[in-house]
Write a structure and sequence with these properties.
The structure holds 2 protein chains of 2 kinds. The N and C termini of chain A lie far apart (36 Å). The radius of gyration of chain A is 13 Å and the shape is globular. Chain A is an all-beta fold. Chain A has strands spanning 4-7, 10-13, 19-25, 31-37, 43-51, 54-57, 64-66, 76-78, 87-94, 102-103, 107-111. Chain B is built from no helices and 12 strands. Chain B has strands spanning 3-6, 11-14, 19-21, 23-26, 31-38, 44-50, 56-59, 62-65, 75-77, 86-94, 106-107, 111-116. Chain B starts with a strand and ends with a strand. Classes of the chains: A mainly beta, B mainly beta. The A-B interface holds A 4, 31, 33, 35, 40-45, 48, 50, 56, 58, 90, 92, 94, 99-106 and B 4, 32, 34, 36, 42-46, 49, 89, 91, 93, 101-110.
Chain lengths: 112, 117
């Protein structure tokens, strides 16, 4: 099992550009999550999904979009990058009722 | 809303010292409590968890007890090692009165631990 994988590991964007952060899990987990981690802060939930075709907003969804067409994949889309979106982004997944989340290695994004 | 407060860091200890990282929480329902650890350059991984009051989670010499009366989940280890140097996050998943939270986590701000030989 690879667990949760994320690509890319690092990216520099210019203000106004768009990109998609990829997340894939091979554990057949129904639940998937996107968090952002700012320096000196804990992680904040951006979006989550309880299964293919079902997504919902977390605490800080503005400026982001998600889709969940398959159980395995949960991409995060930034449409118009802003400096405030400079952060480290983590994808995670969990199994029903267990609620232990398994995290990917993260994507470091710098918006200039 | 739910919140988690961790002790201010960073924490610097000598090898074999005793470790305590304080964590208190506010929740409206029936939370499960977690400690996650993040080693340099890596994602978070679960260290231990407790799902109901008075449960004790333990792993790799670390322990934490779910104290509902003090709304706390302090992390302890009797003898730290250099390899324990990492960032430690306390988190909760609040099931709410309806019994489900979809596993969403609320995190504390993290505590940086550095252990010197």
């Amino acid at each position: 099992n690879a667990g949760v994988t994320q690509t890319p590991k690092f990216r520099i964007l210019k203000i106004g550009q768009s990109m998609t952060l990829q997340c894939t899990q091979d554990m057949n987990h129904n639940y998937m999550y996107w968090y952002r981690q700012d320096p000196g802060m804990g992680l904040k939930l951006i979006y989550y999904s309880v299964g293919a075709g079902i997504t919902d907003k977390g605490e800080v969804p503005n400026g982001y979009n998600v889709s969940r067409s398959t159980t395995e994949d949960f991409p995060l889309r930034l449409e118009l990058a802003a400096p405030s979106q400079t952060s480290v982004y983590f994808c995670a997944s969990s199994q029903d009722r267990e609620w232990t989340q398994y995290f990917g290695p993260g994507t470091r994004l710098l918006v200039l | 809303g739910d919140s988690v407060t961790q002790m201010e860091g960073p924490v610097t200890l000598s090898e074999e010292a005793f470790l305590t990282i304080n964590c208190t929480y506010t929740a409206t329902g029936y939370p499960s409590l977690f400690w996650y650890v993040q080693y340099p350059g890596e994602g978070l991984q679960l260290l231990l968890k407790a799902t109901k009051a008075d449960d004790k989670g333990s792993n790799k010499g670390f322990e934490a007890t779910y104290r509902k009366e003090t709304t706390s989940f302090h992390l302890e280890k009797g003898s730290v090692q250099v390899s324990d140097s990492a960032v430690y996050f306390c988190a909760l998943s609040d099931r709410g009165a309806g019994g489900t939270s979809y596993g969403k986590l609320t995190f504390g701000q993290g505590t940086i631990l550095t252990v010197h030989p």
